[in-house]
Amino acid sequence: MGVAGRLVGSVRRLRGRVRRGGAGESGFAAMQELVLVSSAGDALIAVALAGSQFFSVQPGEARNKVALYLLVTMAPFALLAPLVGPTLDRFPSGRRVALGVTLLARGALAWMLAGVITGEGLVLYPEALGLLVLSRAFGVARNAVVPRVVPEGVTLVKANSRLTLTTVAAGLALAPLGYGIGNSLGYEWVLRAAAVIFVIGLFFAWVLPSHVDSSVGERPAALLGRATVVGGSRFRRALGELPSALRSAVAVRALVGFLTIFLAFSFREDGGGLFSIGLLGLGASLGSGAGVFLGGRLNKRPEALIFGAVMLAGVGCLAAALLYMQATALGAALLACMAGSMGKLGLDAVIQRDVAEDTRNSAFARSETAMQLCWVLGGAVGLIPMPPWIALLVGAAGMGVALIAETVSLRRVSRSDRAARTAPMTVTSPTLPLA
Predict the structure, then answer these.
(1) d(Cα 41, Cα 36) in Å, to the nearest integer?
(2) Could you state, in order of their start, the residue ranges of all structural domains in the chain?
(3) Which CATH number is 23-212's, of 1.20.1250.20, 3.40.50.10090, 2.10.10.70, 1.10.10.10?
(4) Residues 190 and 53 sit within 8 Å (Cβ to Cβ)
(5) Per-residue pLDDT tens over the stretch 188-226
């Protein structure tokens, strides 16, 4: 049997393993394959943008390019992302179509971006913004589909952890291939490969079971909090009372963005080169995978999982600041990515437990948008030049503040639970009419 035959056999065995436990009948296996294809395309796009906007220019110019990219793409994204969820909520019976449209549009934009990736114009930025918004729209539509394809006996948190591991695996597999194509043929060919992958993903969106388009019993979630805010600024009233789980999870996600951007520039300016950046990316992927693996087995108490994630990230940054070297900085980044995955799983568990079933899908969409925006805000802070040990101390201080806030919130919830358990039950009797 040749190499092609062994490859086909390996793919068949892998697909058979994915379809175990009812995943094939429920449609979860097709969803997992769709996420794999989408994540593979996103990984290639990230490689192309990093290779053309970061590695190919001088460090000072690269910092300016990344800052411009964040400003030009993220400022409109901050306005458009909150509209993605409500827009898709208006078409609840066309989820497969929404997934397919986002893939097709991403393929077209990736092919167009290939023609301008090596230029100096500003056309790159609106096309990159379109890819970013469409990727978020795909994530929103995916989160709406997942609860309807989860196999019998599998929790939503466990299903999300499997999909996250699929995303990590796609990044680990495609990122080295993308760098190889970029260095040998040019990064425009990396984008064209991503476009082809996105178009292939249309097949996996099409074979999803028809019941994912059912909208029975759903209504949009207006807020992620427990109560509507009637006072304060317009911004606060729009956000509502964000639960402590979301605050802590987005704090860890902001730290991940901060360390990713800051350490990438720090290693490059210190002469680390592509090898150090590759180690940073490898550590981030391994940390994310380890966090998903551990979090999926420690999700019985989501508040404790989130608390542990914040503490893990803070301790890692503090230890790296006190004993700074490149190895300890890489360890801090790995622990931060591990904590980010654990915090996300804990947040998913809290939403699954505390948000009504008919509003849960929309709540997942809003939380994903908040996580994305906070990663970008952390990355923007990471562009500020500072000594590495100070940057790590800043990260540790941020986690300390989040840890205090989470502790206060947990104590408040604990007091409320004790009060509810000890409150006497009041039995009311019907009022009899007076004679």
Answers:
(1) 9
(2) 23-212, 240-418
(3) 1.20.1250.20
(4) no
(5) 999 999 999 999 999 888 888 887 776 555 555 544 444
Apex CA 71: angle with CA 57 and CA 321, to 5°?
A: 70
User: What pLDDT, on the 0 to 100 scale, is given for residue 255?
Assistant: 94
Cα 258 versus chain centre, distance: 15
Token readout for 411 is 């104590």
Q: With CA atoms as reference, report the closest residue to 82 among 335, 285, 373, 312.
A: 373
The Cα 86–Cα 205 span in angstroms is 21
- Per-residue pLDDT at 21: 54
Within a 10 A sphere around the Cβ of 415, how many other Cβ atoms? Answer: 10
DSSP 298: S
Q: What is the largest CA-CA distance in the chain?
A: 97
Instruction: Give the separation between CA 318 and CA 321, rounded to whole angstroms.
Output: 5
Q: Are the C-beta atoms of residues 263 and 333 closer than 8 Å to each other?
A: yes
Q: How high is the pLDDT of residue 41? A: 92
Contact by Cβ (8 Å): 35, 91 = no
Under DSSP, is residue 15 helix (H, G, I), strand (E, B) or coil?
helix
**Residues whose CB falls within 8 Å of the CB of residue 115, separated by 6 or more in sequence, listed in order:** 188
Reported pTM: 0.73
Q: What pLDDT is stored for residue 67 in this prediction? A: 73
Tens-digit pLDDT profile for residues 69-90: 776 666 666 666 666 666 666 6
Task: Check: CB of residue 188 under 8 Å from CB of residue 194.
Answer: no
Backbone conformation region of residue 154, classed left if phi is above 0, alpha if psi is from -120 to 50, else beta: beta
Of residues 308, 283, 314, 312, the one with CA closest to residue 393: 314
CATH of 240-418, one of 3.30.230.10, 1.10.10.10, 3.40.50.300, 1.20.1250.20: 1.20.1250.20
Determine the Cα–Cα distance for residues 252 and 337; give it in Å rounded to an integer: 8
What CA–CA distance (Å, rounded) separates 336 from 326? 15
pLDDT at residue 148, as a whole number: 81
